Each structure stands twice: as structure tokens, then as C-alpha cells.
Automatic annotation (TrEMBL):
This is PhoPQ-activated pathogenicity-related protein. It comes from the Bacteria. InterPro entries: AB_hydrolase_fold (IPR029058), AXE1_dom (IPR008391), FrsA_esterase (IPR050261), Pept_S9_AS (IPR002471). Pfam families: AXE1. Keywords: Hydrolase. It comes from Pedobacter africanus. The keyword Nucleus does not apply. Residues 58-242 form the Acetyl xylan esterase domain. GO terms for biological process: proteolysis. One of its GO terms (molecular function) is serine-type endopeptidase activity.
């Protein structure tokens, strides 16, 4: 007869055997390899307010690749990690030319989060190549490459290493593995969009600037076309977020500027329209770089509402039309202070060059009413700002030019 200890042991073993290897979404992608479900080993290389680590990424050129990252938490800031308990966690993905940003991880730790910010270019935080890291040709990241070996393609490695960073931070005893979020800036936004449909363990995802449909109308379209018809089609099938976003189940917040010089509003609209559970924050004049990107306060408010049940962002509802009159409702837990019509009458051919204007509107009973659009309006959207100065937007609207 089995002892109680033997029963417990057998139950544990059986649980390991029958436990799914990971997300069903991952199992249907090119990342479905045994190593993608591992908790990567790592070594600590520096100890400070944020801890520098090197963890094992995907196999690359015959061995596990080294990936530099910073890990920060309230405990690393105070010097007492034993005080960390059941922390929500966030995975931070840099954009083009970026690295493992220590200050980004610390910013989230100050908000009560565990945070990991990794370098996806084979470098340390000083942008110096590390032994065993990804090999960039020259000083440029090979975003658009289709090589004979899948595991030598940068996007394959980058997405895989973000998944492994998620595995790692979820394994830390101080982290609540059921409360994790993902956010990325620019190219990190592209990766975040793709991963939203690949790794369904996240409770919230916030891509900033970056979007999908890179082949449609973005600053990267010409770079993609340089691959040639066959390889560009392969790249899109393997890596463009348009292939994955419809599978995203978690809530997503899309943050961008009206005149972003890399990710244009039409490709952006196609991207967010693929996601049912979404919110938007499109801002006139938002500049494009890492510090401007992660400084948007809506990112934390959105993530925290899903991980810590704090007050959510307002949510805009679809506009309704009655002749020229437009009405749109919104839901808001925190009172809304202001509402705006954001629009452009600019006939410039390039979306990034259009001049945008805004008109403040009145709200009543959580509803915006607009008697008519300004003459010559070409693109427009409504937005609201709550008493915390959190700004959210309705869907972008394209309109045949209106002349009164």
C-alpha cells in the first residue's frame, strides 16, 4: 500500500507528465521547439538597484545564445529582496537601436512591479557585444532577413528571447505568474503585437508606436520589399503581426502619434482593428523615441487596471451618425474632464506630414455630440481625457472630403 508521501510524489510526477508544455498558441507557430518552454538558466553579472543578468536564449550557431537583461523589483531598489511578495510583473521590449534599459526597469519597480528589460541585439547595456550573443552585421540590426537557417533570423531570435524572458520572470518566487504584462517601444511594439497572438499568458499588452501590416504602408515597406517577392512573402508569413493579432485574447492598448514617421495611421488602423478587446491612445504631436514612448502614463494605468484592479482608462464607443450629426458615448470610472474632435483637412499625400487640429467638445451623460465635421475634413477621431490626464481615443475615421 502506498504511503501518503508516495501518493503525493506520484501525483506531482503525473502532473509534470500531463502538464501542457505551454501556450496552445505557441504550439502552432515556428517557435514550437522544446527549448521555448524552458525556464532559462542565468547568471548574475551586476548587483545594483537593478540586477544585471545574462540568460540563455534560443539556440544560435550551435549553442544557446547569451542575452543580457536587467531585472528590477521593489526589493532590488531597497536592497531587501526578501520583502518582495506576489508581485505583478512586466516584460519590456526595446525598439530599434535600443538595449536593455536599466532606467525603464527601475521605473516599473518604483511602481511596485517586477520588471525585466532585455537586449535583443547581442549587446550589454553599453551596446557592446557580449560573448555568445547575437551577431549583428556591422552596427545594424538585420530586421528583415530570411536566411537558410531559421534560428539565424533576427526576428525569430528576438521573439523567442522575449518569450524566454517571460518564462524566466514568471519563475521567480516573488512574482505572481498569473499577473504579467508586456509592453514594447517602436520595433519592440511590432514584437509585442506579434507576441500578443503567440503567448497568451499575458493579462495585458501595450505596443507603443509599432504595429503590423508593415508591407502595407509604413516606413519599413521599402526595406521589406528589398528582400524580393519570395523572401518578403516568407517574412510576412513568419513575422508580421498581421499573422498573429487575431489570436490575441488579452486586452491591448495601442499608443501612437498622429504623425509618427515610422508607423502610419492606415497600417496602424488595420493593426488595432484585428483585436476585439482593445483601447487606443492616439496623440497629436507625440514624438518618437524610447523616452517619449514609455513616458505615456496611459501605459501603466492600463496595465495596472488589469493586474491590480485599479481604476481603468475610459473607453470610447463607436460613433453614430444621423445626417451630419455625430454622437459617441464613452465609459469612464474616473470622471472625464475634456473631450475633443481631432481632425485634419491637410491634403498632403503622406500621412506623417499632415497637420492636425483639435476642437474641444462638451460632454453630457457620458456622451459627446458633434453637429458637423469641419469643412474639408479628411481623417478624424474623438478623444477624451479624464481627471488623471489619461487620454484615450476612438477609432480613426476616414472621410470623403467634406465641403460646405
Amino acid at each position: 500500500m502506498l504511503t501518503r508521501y508516495q501518493i503525493i510524489l506520484l501525483t506531482a510526477v503525473w502532473g509534470i507528465i500531463t502538464m501542457p508544455r505551454g501556450s496552445a498558441q505557441i504550439r502552432h507557430t515556428i517557435w514550437d521547439t522544446k527549448e521555448i518552454y524552458n525556464i532559462p538558466s542565468y547568471e548574475t553579472v551586476s548587483t545594483d538597484s537593478a540586477i544585471g543578468i545574462i540568460y540563455k536564449g534560443l539556440s544560435y550557431k550551435g549553442q544557446a545564445k547569451n542575452v543580457y537583461a536587467f531585472y528590477a523589483s521593489p526589493g532590488t531598489l531597497s536592497g531587501n529582496r526578501s520583502a518582495d511578495r506576489q508581485l505583478p510583473a512586466v516584460v519590456l521590449v526595446h525598439g530599434g537601436g535600443g538595449t536593455a534599459f536599466k532606467n525603464w526597469a527601475i521605473m516599473w519597480a518604483k511602481k511596485g512591479y517586477a520588471a525585466i528589460a532585455m537586449d535583443l541585439r547581442g549587446n550589454d547595456f553599453n551596446k557592446k557585444h557580449i560573448a555568445g550573443g547575437f551577431d549583428e552585421p556591422g552596427s545594424g540590426t538585420p530586421y528583415f532577413t530570411i536566411t537558410p537557417k531559421l534560428n539565424e533570423q533576427w526576428m525569430y531570435q528576438a521573439i523567442g528571447d522575449v518569450i524566454l524572458a517571460h518564462n524566466l520572470i514568471r519563475s521567480f518566487k516573488e512574482v505572481d505568474s498569473n499577473r504579467t504584462a508586456l509592453t514594447g517601444i517602436s520595433w519592440g511594439g511590432i514584437i509585442s503585437c506579434a507576441i500578443a497572438g503567440i503567448d497568451n499568458r499575458y493579462k495585458a499588452v501595450v505596443p507603443v508606436y509599432g504595429c503590423g501590416y508593415l508591407f502595407y504602408n509604413t516606413a519599413m515597406r521599402n526595406d521589406l520589399a528589398k528582400l524580393g517577392k519570395t523572401d518578403s512573402a516568407t517574412w510576412v508569413k513568419q513575422y508580421d503581426p498581421s499573422q498573429y493579432l487575431k489570436k490575441a485574447k488579452m486586452p491591448m492598448l495601442f499608443v501612437n502619434g498622429t504623425n509618427d514617421s515610422h508607423f502610419y495611421l492606415d497600417s496602424y488602423a488595420k493593426t488595432y482593428s484585428s483585436v476585439k478587446n482593445r483601447n487606443l491612445s492616439v496623440k497629436i504631436g507625440l514624438k518618437h523615441n524610447h523616452s517619449y514612448g514609455w513616458a505615456n502614463k496611459e501605459i501603466f494605468t492600463f496595465i495596472d487596471s488589469y493586474l491590480n484592479n485599479t481604476a481603468p482608462l475610459p473607453v470610447m464607443q463607436a460613433p453614430k451618425f444621423s445626417g451630419k450629426k455625430i454622437t459617441a458615448g464613452f465609459k469612464a470610472v474616473v470622471p472625464v474632464d475634456k473631450a475633443y474632435l481631432n481632425y485634419t483637412t491637410d491634403a498632403s499625400a503622406l500621412l506623417k506630414d499632415k497637420k492636425w487640429e483639435r476642437i474641444e467638445l462638451k460632454t453630457e451623460n457620458n456622451k459627446i455630440t458633434l453637429p458637423d465635421l469641419p469643412a474639408g475634413t479628411r481623417i478624424w477621431y474623438l478623444s477624451v481625457t479624464d481627471s488623471r490626464e489619461m487620454e484615450v481615443s476612438g477609432d480613426l475615421q476616414w472621410k470623403t472630403v467634406i465641403n460646405h
